[in-house]
Specification:
This protein has one domain. By secondary structure, it is mainly beta. It is built from 2 helices and 12 strands.
Length: 237
């Protein structure tokens, strides 16, 4: 995929609070003040808090809560199988369903994201031009019209934050991309962080409604650990 203009970048970096809860801070790739933050288990209550404190809930399903800069919240009811559902003010804004062509294998071949009325918003598929690596799970984000909207990546290690300017089709346009390789995380904790974060590279700026769903998808992928496409569909070392 090549971008006709400088793309919109949304980076979500995963860190951990002292109570072992995973957190995720979203910014435009520059590592500045986040415009949204997510916290693991914030919608689950005291039982989940105890599990996280004692190291029994490191990634995995649950109700994660995103808080936007204006104080509004998005609840992400995340699951490894079945549906993951996203809601704002009690109204469903998005739902993810995975499709598996081989039920004997773990994960999904591709996933579909719909709105609260069941209309398709996005499809997520393996990126044929960007093979997965041990550092990066690369996916394509498509609209309901099957047109490519951008990249959706899950960063698995430090090396995964690197970005190929040439692959964007905009050599020299983006300038210094050092900020996009930062892996600064907030907080500390005792457990390893499996998914370091997510990176959206979009052909155009999303609307507020689109942004909310995309952020929830990133939380579903990074904090829950749900797979939208099989990581082993195309892997290079």
């Amino acid at each position: 995929m090549e971008f006709e203009q400088p793309p919109t970048v949304i980076v979500g970096r995963v860190g951990r609070r002292l109570n072992n809860a995973l957190i995720m801070a979203f910014d435009g790739g520059g590592g500045g003040v986040p415009f949204a933050t997510a916290r693991q288990g914030a919608g689950n209550g005291f039982g989940m808090t105890l599990k996280m404190l004692f190291g029994l809930a490191n990634h995995g399903p649950g109700k994660q809560v995103i808080t936007l800069a204006d104080g509004s919240k998005i609840v992400c009811d995340c699951h490894m199988r079945g549906f993951s559902t996203f809601s704002r003010d009690g109204v469903v804004i998005g739902q993810v369903e995975g499709t598996s062509l081989n039920p004997k294998k773990w994960g999904f071949d591709h996933s579909t994201v719909t709105d609260g009325d069941g209309r398709t918003l996005y499809a997520v598929e393996a990126d044929p031009d960007r093979p997965n690596t041990m550092s990066l799970h690369s996916m394509l984000l498509l609209g309901a019209d099957r047109e490519v909207r951008g990249w959706l990546d899950v960063v698995l290690s430090r090396d995964g934050w690197g970005i190929d300017v040439g692959a964007l089709g905009l050599p020299g346009v983006l300038g210094d991309l050092a900020s996009l390789t930062s892996i600064s995380s907030a907080g500390t904790g005792d457990l390893p962080i499996v998914n370091k974060g997510t990176r959206l590279v979009l052909a155009r700026p999303p609307s507020p409604a689109e942004r909310d769903v995309l952020l929830a998808m990133c939380v579903d992928l990074a904090i829950c650990g749900r797979t939208y496409t099989r990581w082993d569909q195309s892997v290079t070392t």
